[in-house]
Design a protein that fits this description.
Cyclophilin, 156 residues, 3 helices, alpha+beta
Length: 156
């Protein structure tokens, strides 16, 4: 299933044992998708976003090194507008926040915000199109009960 946004590549995201499939937006965010693919499979921990709204976040040293190695966020002041940046997240959006070196998975409305920077663009590199109610349930559960393990892998 190819479009102007995706070549058809997909990743699988497993959160606390629940699996989701996301279409990579590799035609919209090519450097970000290439960077993400370079670290797969990737296992970490996800927890609820603190300031941005209805979403989950993943931050770790592997993501920080990945951003540096792939030159994401080319200058300290300006995002790479060729990487599908947005300050808003919709249910199913998966973004990479280059300033904070994190992955955001949005299950409801979200505005990418974090002190001290304020509103900062996040590179939307994938989207979950199915099972959004299940994603909402997982997100709300993590918001109430705390972090869960997360695994990202290429879907063959």
């Amino acid at each position: 299933m190819s479009s102007k946004r995706s070549s058809g590549k997909q990743i699988e995201i497993e959160i606390g044992g629940v699996k989701f499939v996301a279409d990579l937006l590799d035609l919209r965010a090519p450097k970000t998708c290439e960077a993400i693919l370079s670290i797969l499979p990737h296992e970490s921990v996800t927890w609820h976003q603190f300031w941005s709204g209805s979403g989950l976040q993943v931050h770790d040293e592997t993501l920080k090194k990945m951003a540096e190695d792939h030159g994401l966020w080319p200058t300290a002041n300006f995002p790479d507008y060729g990487e599908n940046p947005s300050i808003y997240g919709c249910p199913g959006d998966i973004g990479f926040y280059p300033v904070g070196h994190g992955i955001f998975i949005t299950y409801g409305k979200s505005r990418f915000y974090g002190p001290p920077e304020g509103v900062e663009p996040t590179y939307i590199f994938a989207e979950i199109k199915k099972d959004l109610d299940k994603l909402n349930e997982v997100g709300r559960n993590i918001g109430r009960h705390g972090q869960r393990n997360i695994v990202l892998r290429l879907r063959e």
